[in-house]
Every structure is written in structure tokens, then in C-alpha cells.
Amino acid sequence: MSLGLDQTQLDRYSRHIILDHVGPAGQAALLNSSVLVVGAGGLGSPIVQYLAAAGVGRLGIVDDDRVERSNLQRQVVHGESDIGRLKVESAAEFVAELNPDVTVETHDLRVAPDNAMELIDGYDVVVDATDNFRTRFLLNDACVLTETPLSHGAVYRFEGQVTTFEREEGSPCYRCLFPEAPPEGAVPDCATAGVLGVVPGLIGTIQATEVIKLLIEYGETLDGRLWNVDAAGMDVETVPLRRNPDCPVCGDDPAVTAIEDVKYADRCRAPSE
Amino acid sequence: MRVTVDVVGEGTHEVEVGEGGTYADLLEPLEYSRHEVSIVVDGQPVPEDQPVEVDRVRVLRLVQGG
């Protein structure tokens, strides 16, 4: 049973095809899947690499930044010769070289309230690989409103957090845990606090793993659990998460029914707050 | 009352709060402001201005880097 896989694909994906719970059907599912990766930096690099290698058929990549030398310590999809280029172009070129089965759609822009819904439309899974709270809250809200599964990852110094919001019945969302964003500058970013280069690699590969499991419909994701990974002590702490009935976006009586309801420029506040 | 405050990824602290002490009071001996964290009980955030009713909480820091 090849499920439409040609000889080259049977060869390329042979280690998936012989694997129980993936097999030809799982590989065909991956090739027929679409994933939007928002951010082509530290987290986005391993996510793009592994999803492309796995044969995810349509890969959207969103980023409006250009490659800088200081990125190369962790953003492994880009190289020295890419400095100054758009990250989406550099990432797309990497994918084209790695796997011609993957169609890449590049979006040289910043996710904003006026484009978020259109951007994620038609993708099976969205991956949050961004570096700022405004985009994180916006992606969460858009994914809840469209019932699109969202992979969340974030890094800081030697640590990372990762979870998956499947959008199944009773599934929590990012705002269930963090109802609104902190004030500007209250939480340091990697540019000011630093990050061990391999940490986004650790977290990004977990995010890619979660996405692949969702697409082949096998295994248990981190839905309802957040992993906090500390690379210094090599500790993984699991924090259970539950849907919050008072959540402004996925609660019983949500204040947010459209992206336009939220003041993203003002700590991503919902209208009743 | 004595409350165990588990700052995820960092470690636990034993914090004393007085009668009617709030969840926000649990953060006072720590280096985090209420804007930087979520105080979680049984998988859900608790309002920081509410009186403490449990003897153990988790504090989850907001992380934005990518």
C-alpha cells in the first residue's frame, strides 16, 4: 500500500513508512498537510527544518525580519551568506534544498490584527515561534476563534516553555493561563537577557514533534500540560493546565468574539477589562 | 499561614502570609512582580487580589523569547 507515494518518496520517507503508527498512511497525511510557522528565528529554524524533512506538504513561514550576524548563534536555518536577507527567503531556500516535496509560502510581514485571520486560514496547525507577547496573544486569539490547533514555545536564558493547544472540547488556551500581556518592558527578551543557543533548538524540536503527532493523529500531545525545560539543571517540570471558564477568549462567556475586540497595543486587553 | 510557592523552573519558597493575605502577597518576598507571572492553583490562574486559600501554589513566569 503506497497511498500515492512515488518511488522517490518511498525511499525518502522509508524510516517513517516502516514505523508503526506512521506508515504509508501517516506519511501521506503529512504530505497532504499544511502548517503555518510564525517566526523564522531561534524556534522557527528547527521547526521549519524538521517539518520540511518530515514532508509536510505546505509550509507557510511568516517573518518580517532580516538575518543579522547575532542571529546565527541559534537560528540554524540561516548562514553567514544570508546576513541582510529576509529570513523568510533564507528559510525557504533551505527547505527547497532539503525537500522538493514541500511547497513553501513566504509571508514577509508582521502578524497584525488586520491580517491574522486571513494568514491562518486554510492551515491545519499554527506554530507560535515568535519573540513578542503581542503576536503571541494575537495568534492565540485567532486560533481560538478559528478552532485551529496552536503549538506554543518560548525561551529565556537556559529555559524554555512548550505546550500545545489542540482546540478540542475542554482544551485550554494561552489566555486561560495568562489573561493579558505584561506591560511593555516588564519581561526581558532574549536580546536583553540572552539565551543559550541550543535552547530554542530543544523547544523547537519538541514543537515540531507535537505538530507531526497532530498531523498523523498519533500519541499524546502536551494539550493540558506545559513543559518547563531547564537546560542548566536538565529538569523538566510539567505544569497541568485547565480551561478557565472565565477566559476572555475561550471561556463560557467570552468577551472576545473577534480580533477587532482586543486592544493589542494596550497589553492585549479584552474589551471588558 | 505558611504557603509553599513553587516558582516553576526556579525552585520552591516557603512564604508566611497573615490573616486575609492575598495571592499577590505571596510574591512580595520573591523577585517577581504580578505582571511577570501567573499564580496557578489546580491548573488555573487565581486572581491576585483574592485571599490565599491553599497551602501550595505554582508561579509560572511569562516568557516571550523565540
What would the keywords be for this entry?
heterodimer; A: 273 residues; alpha/beta; Rossmann fold; eight-stranded mixed beta sheet; 32% helix; 16% strand; B: 66 residues; mainly beta; Ubiquitin-like (UB roll); five-stranded mixed beta sheet; 5 strands; 0% helix; ATP binding (chain A); nucleotidyltransferase activity (chain A)
Task: Report the principal-axis shape of chain B.
Answer: globular
The helix/strand series of chain A, from N terminus to C terminus, equals HHHEHEHEHEHEEHHHEE
Strand order of the largest sheet of chain B: 2-1-5-3-4
The rounded Rg of chain B comes to 11 Å
Q: How far apart, in Å, are the first and last alpha carbons of chain A?
A: 56 Å
Number of structural domains of chain A: 1
Strand/helix succession of chain B: EEEEE
**CATH topology (fold) name of chain B:** Ubiquitin-like (UB roll)
The CATH superfamily name of chain A is NAD(P)-binding Rossmann-like Domain
Number of strands of chain B: 5
CATH top level label of chain A = Alpha Beta
Per DSSP, the total helix count of chain A is 10
Q: Any overview of this molecule?
A:
- The complex is a heterodimer of chains A (273) and B (66).
- With 273 residues, chain A is an alpha/beta fold.
- Chain A has one domain: Rossmann fold (3-Layer(aba) Sandwich), CATH 3.40.50.720.
- Chain A is 32% helix and 16% strand.
- Chain A is built from ten helices and eight strands.
- Chain A has helices spanning 7-12, 14-17, 23-31, 44-54, 87-98, 116-120, 133-146, 174-177, 190-193, 198-216; strands spanning 34-38, 58-62, 103-107, 125-128, 150-156, 159-165, 225-230, 235-240.
- In chain A, helix 4 packs parallel to helix 10 (198-216).
- Chain A is globular.
- In chain A, 47% of the residues are buried.
- By secondary structure, chain B is mostly beta strands.
- Chain B has one domain: Ubiquitin-like (UB roll), CATH 3.10.20.30.
- Helix content of chain B is 0%, strand content 38%.
- Chain B has a five-stranded mixed beta sheet, with no helix packed on it.
- In chain B, strand 1 and strand 2 form a beta hairpin.
- The N and C termini of chain B lie far apart (39 Å).
- The mean pLDDT of chain B is 94.
- Chains A and B meet through strand 5, strand 6, strand 7 and strand 8 of A and strand 4 and strand 5 of B.
